[in-house]
Design a protein that fits this description.
The protein contains 5 helices and no strands. By secondary structure, it is mainly alpha-helical. This is Putative addiction module antidote protein.
């Protein structure tokens, strides 16, 4: 019989620890975009911003840090212009392709 694992004893997973290269970030965003979920996209951009430094990304996007956190929280529905500003600040370009 396998030993039982107590979930509370497991380390907490933090995706930002794995977003340590442009390639990892691109792959993460690609997978998220395939889900067709705007709230998930906002949360993923928030993950990337946290990995790169929320203060620096907010400054580059021309937003306050608090506004950036609010716009990219899980289940947020940021405006498209906010997504564009954040993507530019993150050094991310979104691409379209035929399905």
């Amino acid at each position: 019989m396998a030993e039982k694992i107590n979930i509370a004893d497991l380390p907490e997973f933090d995706i930002t620890e794995h977003l340590d290269s442009d390639q990892a970030i691109a792959e993460y965003i690609t997978v998220v975009l395939e889900e067709d979920d705007p709230a998930l996209l906002a949360a993923a951009l928030g993950d990337i911003a946290r990995a790169k430094g929320m203060t620096d990304i907010a400054r580059a996007a021309g937003m306050s840090r608090e506004s950036l956190y609010k716009a990219l929280r899980p289940n947020a529905q940021p405006r498209f212009d906010t997504i564009v500003k954040v993507c530019k600040a993150l050094g991310i370009r979104l691409h379209a392709e035929p399905v």
